[in-house]
Write a structure and sequence with these properties.
about 240 residues; alpha/beta; 5-stranded mixed sheet; 4-stranded parallel sheet; 10 helices; globular
């Protein structure tokens, strides 16, 4: 059995390339789509000087671009550093300084907040959402050896309730195991649809990206949680599970 996250994805892609991995606000994303988009991300970042093992801070809301970016970093062996989009000021400065990123991908409307937080970002490759969309449109291919299960997949920061936020190192194997744990708790079976409202920058959302790699389930993803539309969205997606 594949030990790491990327190995799982490659195996599922080879077996069923046309299967729907997820839907974002109802729009399907197949394994082939995710392979193409993630390759473009990996190639585009590599062309901009980001190398295997480099840390990439990502301050994005849920969306197809965020999903493609996560998979692109994983396939290239770059390290995903998800940043809570609600962070500002000293909390944001601490994370961006502590992780020492080679690149930063950030929502266009959050760029000023990043610039004002006090983090020294000279020399950091910075992409807004428009640049990310352009990179995806380039459609470049990425050819490199896949990461090993023990390689670092992400550095995920704690909430910082007992002091400055700590960066937790998550390997490719660890993310696979976290997803398999969520799968056991959910008792999800082939054909199920899991409604995903959790932000991908939190482990609660991040671990769910493993589920379609271990079962023939579909993730029904939305941009954010809405109390007023929640059950309407669940019914519209035909969801069988809520994480």
């Amino acid at each position: 059995m594949p030990e790491g996250f990327w190995e799982l994805f490659a195996a599922a892609l080879a077996e069923e390339p046309g299967r729907v991995y997820a839907r974002f606000d109802g729009a399907p994303i197949t394994f082939t789509d995710l392979d193409r988009m993630s390759a473009a991300v990996a190639a585009g970042l590599a062309a901009r000087g980001v190398a295997r093992g480099d840390r990439v801070a990502v301050m994005l809301r849920n969306g197809p671009g965020a999903l493609a970016l996560i998979f692109g970093l994983a396939r290239a062996g770059m390290v995903w550093v998800p940043v809570n989009v609600a962070l500002r000021g000293e909390g944001l400065r601490h994370v961006l300084t502590h992780c020492d990123p080679r690149a930063l991908v950030v929502e266009a409307d959050l760029l000023d907040r990043v610039r004002d937080c006090g983090a020294a970002l000279d020399g950091v490759v910075t992409l807004g959402t428009a640049e990310l969309d352009a990179l995806l449109a380039e459609g470049a291919r990425h050819h490199a050896p896949p990461p090993a299960p023990a390689d670092t997949f992400a550095i995920m920061y704690t909430s910082g309730t007992t002091g400055p936020a700590k960066g937790v190192i998550v390997t490719h194997r660890m993310l696979r195991l976290a997803g398999e744990g969520a799968l056991l708790v959910a008792a999800a079976r082939d054909g199920d649809v899991l409604f995903v409202w959790e932000p991908l920058y939190h482990i609660g959302g991040a671990q769910l990206i493993v589920l379609p790699l271990r079962r023939r389930v579909t993730l029904a993803m939305v941009g954010r949680f809405s109390a007023s539309r929640f059950w309407e969205e669940v019914r519209a997606e035909g969801a069988t599970h809520i994480h």
